[in-house]
Amino acid sequence: MTAFLTVFLSVFIAELGDKTQLATALFAADEARSKWLVFLASSAALVASAGIATLAGSLAREFVEGPMLKIVAGCGFIVIGALILWGALKPA
Predict the structure, then answer these.
(1) b (16+ CB within 10 A) / e for 6-43
(2) What is the pLDDT of residues 14-54, one digit of tens each?
(3) Contact (Cβ atoms closer than 8 angstroms) between residue 27 and residue 43
(4) What local confidence, expressed as pLDDT, does residue 73 receive?
(5) Could you give the maximum distance between any two Cα atoms of the chain, in Å?
(6) Between 36 and 88, whose confidence is greater?
(7) Helix 66-89 and helix 35-63, axial crossing angle in degrees, nearest 10
(8) How far apart, in whole angstroms, are the C-alpha atoms of residue 91 and residue 11?
């Protein structure tokens, strides 16, 4: 149960305010669209995306050892964060 909560909270917090959530909110704001359709479609998309990520992680584990995979993932997050900061701080 601890692993479930760790994964759930990590993904949930990462998704808050994400472009995916904003796009879903915009679709739901359209009166012509069923709110249930938006919920089901966005949920299915997130499940499919998580499935692809899980498969990719499982395949990566076959070729890269655990500690190295964590180092590569951590470096990736640092690079993404640096690029976001660079874009935010760069004069317009």
Answers:
(1) eeeeeeeeeeeeeeeeeebeeeeeeeeeeeeebeeebe
(2) 888 788 888 999 999 999 999 999 999 999 999 999 999 99
(3) no
(4) 84
(5) 49
(6) 36
(7) 130
(8) 32
> How far, in Å, CA of 27 to CA of 17, rounded?
15
For residues 20 and 42, the answer to whether their CB atoms sit within 8 Å is yes
Q: Collapsing DSSP states into helix, strand and coil, what is residue 92?
A: coil
Contacts with 4 (C-beta within 8 Å, 6 or more apart), sequence order:
none
Residue 88, judged by CB atoms within 10 A of its CB (0-12, 13-18, 19+), counts as exposed
Q: How far is CA 79 from CA 10, 54, 61, 74, in A?
A: 19, 22, 21, 9
Q: How far is CA 19 from CA 2, 11, 30, 61, 89, in A?
A: 28, 14, 17, 28, 20
